[in-house]
Amino acid sequence: MLKLNSSRFIIFILAAVVSSCTVRKHPFNFNKNIDNTFLQKVISKSKSILATEKNATSARVYKAGFLQGWMEQNHFVDWAVLSKQRKNEFTSYNRGGKSEYDVYLILFDAKSENKNSFLFFTVQRPWLDTDTATGFSPFYYGILDNRASGPYLVAEETFIITTTGTTYTPSNRKNNKLYFLLDKQYGSNFKSDSLRIEKVVLPQDNQLSDNKALVISVDDVLGDKVSLIMRYEDTIILKP
User: Its domain of life (predicted)?
Assistant: First the structure.
């Protein structure tokens, strides 16, 4: 179980929950807004040296989800965030929820060196409302790689999206370096049925470890091994 006050930490580090604190509603549906046109913009206008798959013909969509609802703990009922796979642990008191968080990982088909570029982000939306968003995490763009130590995602670029009506445009692109280490027990390639983020490595300077790489264990922060399992959902055709 992930307490609400702890969730802001994991949200910021993993982009597993939305970083914006201001609640603004946007008309949004993943199948309509994160479409062929949007994904082509991400690829073609990327400044990342790792984003080499500009001629990708398809993209595989993976998804994980979290719920924010009432949780009973230590004789108190308070807001908590749980993986949707553990939603039965919410208290029966006031079944109504507050927010849901859809975590997306999109893998673009490989064109060189058997590496796939990826897009990783989260959408916050009201409870049971699949056509509205109240916030977006930063979008991370980079490659899926696999070495002797195991599979990982390395994000080379971060950007946000600007909204005009129902049009979503990538903007404010920044170079960065962020590693998402994948669990070896799950898949590690483009055709996998599921992928799970196990650890996050921050190699840049930070307040906790100065210039040393900071390693964050998802198991330790979320307290279970079912969170951030990205299940395959669908394939988006980018080019015929």
Answer: Bacteria
CB contact set of 207 (below 8 Å; sequence gap of 6+) = none
CA distances from 97 to 39, 70, 128, 196 (A): 31, 7, 8, 26
Q: What is the pLDDT along the chain (240 residues), one digit of tens a residue?
A: 444 434 444 444 444 444 444 567 888 999 888 888 888 888 878 876 555 556 778 889 999 888 877 777 677 777 777 777 665 666 556 556 678 889 999 988 876 665 788 999 999 888 888 899 888 888 999 888 877 677 888 888 889 888 887 788 888 888 878 888 888 777 666 678 888 888 888 776 655 556 677 777 777 766 666 677 889 999 998 877
Domain boundaries, the chain: 2-237
Q: Side chain identity at 152, as an amino acid letter?
A: Y
